[in-house]
Structure formats: structure tokens, C-alpha cells
């Protein structure tokens, strides 16, 4: 962090969905995760510079972290 236009998510199959939202709460990116893949890359060049919230979701837990886009 910060990212320019691509992020890579490393996970062990715990999460099923990734959402990226503006700090206002508006969701600007959403994707179903492949639980069989440990690494997944996402193209985010459509996002403007700024601070966003990444939310990883499963049936049992939710994890949030900040993402800074700085092109």
C-alpha cells in the first residue's frame, strides 16, 4: 500500500467475496473470490487517487483494511 492500478490478494480460501468502497460507503468494485486460489490479482485502474476500504467477506467473518490508490 499504496497501489497504482493493480492489487494482489493473498489468502488461504477463508473469504468468498472482495468489495472495495469509497470512504463514503459507495461500493466501487466487487468480485467473487476463487477459494481454490491462494493469490488473486485485481485490476483497479478505474479508481481515482484516494483512500478506499477493502472488505473481505465469508459466511463466518469479515475483515476490513484501508487501500490507498496513488497513480
Structure description:
The protein is mainly β. It is built from no helices and 6 strands. It has strands at residues 6-10, 17-22, 27-32, 39-43, 50-57, 62-69. The strands form 2 sheets. It has a 4-stranded antiparallel β-sheet, with no helix packed on it. The chain has a two-stranded antiparallel sheet with strand order 1-4. The relative contact order is 0.37. The mean pLDDT is 93.
Tally of contiguous helical segments: 0
Alpha carbon gap, first and last residue: 12 Å
Which strands sit side by side, in order, in the main sheet?
3-2-5-6
- Structural class of the helices, strands and pairings? mainly beta
Task: Write down the overall geometry.
Answer: globular
Proportion of residues in helical segments: under 10%
User: How many beta-strand elements?
Assistant: 6
C-alpha Rg (nearest Å): 12 Å
Helix and strand arrangement:
Blueprint: E1 6-10, E2 17-22, E3 27-32, E4 39-43, E5 50-57, E6 62-69
Antiparallel strand pairs: 1-4, 2-3, 2-5, 5-6
Key attributes of the depicted protein:
single chain; 0% helix; mainly beta; 6 strands; 71 residues; two-stranded antiparallel ribbon
Brief overview:
With 71 residues, the protein is mainly β. Helices cover 0% and strands 54% of the residues. Strands 3-2-5-6 form a 4-stranded antiparallel β-sheet, with no helix packed on it.
